[in-house]
Backbone:
């Protein structure tokens, strides 16, 4: 039994075949000898004698030299192991072996020099480098984990690998390991401190491209005496040049109100921390001008190409202008960041832009046969009225348009039914989204009103079926706006989209004839969005209202249309009665289990009325509808609710905005809203 269990030392692999090769050659020589013997017996006999001598030598070498070869191999293997151990010990990369609990059992010289504290025995690596704990150890033998760590001011890339040691406890007398834990964790640490520093320096020296525009150049210059105009412009130039000079940047004036700037990226973080004080600095320039100058700043940064940085800067300045100006926008490959834009802007009195956009819109309409008009989901009166106005413009150009609308709110329902009953309008005057998608093709024209975000439109699929898209909106442009619009008329100064459409109507066709019901629809849109002409009303707002009134808008009808039924009035009263005050200046309210058709409208109305409470700077009402929570945010002038709602993924105006939560947990939504309010106050320095 003992002989059977005895393990004999044998050669294997290529060495075994190498030593057996002479015997194989002996067999071949024997065969050759037989063949030669048959041809010539004397030659065969002589070869047999020589073959016998050769075979004897081969057998002697194989039998008697095998032990010597084995001895030499064992000595070589031992020396090779020593060489390996020495090389690993003196390896220039820090290397250590850990147990499964993170305890260090072996380390090389480099590891010991870098982490002298480990000279003590049985130390846990995570005690000194918390990131290297059991939670990051690889779970499989083929898995390798890389993690960036730091120790005493040095930065390392740690690579962890699981090394199995099956049968280790059977052969090792000093260390006993459970069979299921017969493995080690090999850790190598590569010092990347210098490399990271060079990368950061290279990153910091990359150039940021920027564009600075004076938003209201014409208005500001016109507000001072002619002899002082050049001084005013010079003072603004000086503030801009001084600001950029502080960060070693270059400023190039391209036009009277446009500047190109360039500076190193390492200064960008400082500008962000400073929250672009240039915006406020320029406003302080006052030499008798009644209107303060405001700036829009667009900065772009690309890691790959400077030309791309310039393209990003142009996109950023377009976003800043589209959001009303008086702000800075930074765009890079990761996204867009906004600063400023927290004050209401002065509306421009000129209608040049409206006339230019109207002429461009007329050209699109005249060359298209299939025209679709749509607003946002759950259309309100402004969206509905603007769509009706665009329909009238298309009809005045002797073309046919279809209004895409799906869900009808209680506010819009009376007007919607009135159009359905009027036989002067075609049966396909209103289309469902699916009907519009089936009817549209690549040559169709889609006009989007009161929204510039594609996913919030009544039918996002319709935007993908055509290449000709026009956008008219009065909300601030967001970073996820409709990018492929051939004509984009976004005017944040306007009170409503109906106001913008009313202006366009006056230029698109001479002496346009607007039916009373259509004029009333647009007038109702202006009334709702201005809260009965109390919010965001300018000279052009009243001019648009006067135009609609002259066109036959029925004010009495509008008032009747905007009245609430008893249930909606009670729901609004319930929301207001349950409101609370947060931070002494914010009114917060929730509308839960409202048994009305359009709870979001009641929430918006409640938010407007909460502003009538003394000391309230902004109001926020949360209402549940169709498996979501809708936020209606309102303010008068001190709080930018649009900026707050953008933090929640929404948007809107400075004093009227909204957002959505994709759940119905009202308490969770309220807590998140409070967190965003706290962030806003901290940014404003009010806390």
Residues:
């Amino acid at each position: 039994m003992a002989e059977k269990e005895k393990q004999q030392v044998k050669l294997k692999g290529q060495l075994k075949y190498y030593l057996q090769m002479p015997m194989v050659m002996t067999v071949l020589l024997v065969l050759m000898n037989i063949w030669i013997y048959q041809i010539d017996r004397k030659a065969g006999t002589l070869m047999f004698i020589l073959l016998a001598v050769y075979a004897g030598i081969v057998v002697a070498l194989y039998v008697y030299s095998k032990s010597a070869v084995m001895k030499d191999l064992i000595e070589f293997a031992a020396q090779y192991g020593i060489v390996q151990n020495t090389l690993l010990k003196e390896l220039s990369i820090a290397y250590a072996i850990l147990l499964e609990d993170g305890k260090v059992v072996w380390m090389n010289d480099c590891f010991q020099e870098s982490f002298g504290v480990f000279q003590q025995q049985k130390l846990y690596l995570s005690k000194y480098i918390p990131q290297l704990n059991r939670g990051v150890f690889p779970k499989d033998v083929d898995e390798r984990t890389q993690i960036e760590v730091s120790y005493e001011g040095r930065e390392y890339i740690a690579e962890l690998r699981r090394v199995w040691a099956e049968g280790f406890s059977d052969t090792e007398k000093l260390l006993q390991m459970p069979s299921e834990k017969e493995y080690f964790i090999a850790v190598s640490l590569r010092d990347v401190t210098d490399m990271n520093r060079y990368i950061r320096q290279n990153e910091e020296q990359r150039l940021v491209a920027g564009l600075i525009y004076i938003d209201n150049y014409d208005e500001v210059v016109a507000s001072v005496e002619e002899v002082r105009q050049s001084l005013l412009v010079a003072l603004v130039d000086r503030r801009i040049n001084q600001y950029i000079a502080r960060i070693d940047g270059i400023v190039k004036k391209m036009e009277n109100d446009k500047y190109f700037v360039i500076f190193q990226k390492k200064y960008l973080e400082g500008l962000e921390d400073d929250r672009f004080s240039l915006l406020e600095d320029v406003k302080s320039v006052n030499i008798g001008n009644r209107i303060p100058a405001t700036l829009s700043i667009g900065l772009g940064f690309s890691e790959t190409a400077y030309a791309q940085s310039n393209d990003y800067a142009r996109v950023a300045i377009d976003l800043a202008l589209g959001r009303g100006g008086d702000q800075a926008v930074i765009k890079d490959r990761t996204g867009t960041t906004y600063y400023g834009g927290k004050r209401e802007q002065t509306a421009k009195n000129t209608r040049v832009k409206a006339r230019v956009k109207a002429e461009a819109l007329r050209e699109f309409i005249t060359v298209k046969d299939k025209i679709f008009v749509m607003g946002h989901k759950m259309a309100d009166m402004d969206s509905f009225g603007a769509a009706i106005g665009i329909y009238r413009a298309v009809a005045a150009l002797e073309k046919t348009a279809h209004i895409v609308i799906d869900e009808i709110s209680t506010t819009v329902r009376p007007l919607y039914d009135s159009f359905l009953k009027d036989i002067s309008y075609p049966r396909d005057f209103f289309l469902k989204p699916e009907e519009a998608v089936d009817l549209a093709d690549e040559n169709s024209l889609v006009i989007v009103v009161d929204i510039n975000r594609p996913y919030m439109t009544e039918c996002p699929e319709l935007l993908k079926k055509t290449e000709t898209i026009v956008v008219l909106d009065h909300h601030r442009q967001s970073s996820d706006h409709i990018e492929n619009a051939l004509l984009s008329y976004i005017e944040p100064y306007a009170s409503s989209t109906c106001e913008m459409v009313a202006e366009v109507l006056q230029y698109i066709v001479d002496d346009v004839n607007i039916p009373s019901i259509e004029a009333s629809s647009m007038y109702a849109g202006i009334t709702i969005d201005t809260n009965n002409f109390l919010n965001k009303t300018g000279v052009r707002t009243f001019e648009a209202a006067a135009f609609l009134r002259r066109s036959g808008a029925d004010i009495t009808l509008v008032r009747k249309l905007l009245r609430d039924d008893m249930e909606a009035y009670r729901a609004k009263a319930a929301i207001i009665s349950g409101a609370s005050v947060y931070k002494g200046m914010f009114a917060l309210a929730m509308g839960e289990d409202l048994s009305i058709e359009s709870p979001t409208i009641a929430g918006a109305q409640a938010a407007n009325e909460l502003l009538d409470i003394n000391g309230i700077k902004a109001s926020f009402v949360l209402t549940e509808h169709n498996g979501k929570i809708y936020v209606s945010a309102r303010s008068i002038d001190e709080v930018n609710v649009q900026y707050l709602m953008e933090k929640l993924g929404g948007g809107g105006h400075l004093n009227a905005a909204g957002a959505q939560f994709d759940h119905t947990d009202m308490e969770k939504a309220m807590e998140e809203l409070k967190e965003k309010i706290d962030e806003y106050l901290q940014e404003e320095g009010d806390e």
About this structure: The CA atoms of residues 447 and 470 lie 5 Å apart. The two ends are 87 Å apart (CA to CA). Confidence is low (pLDDT under 50) at residues 1-7.
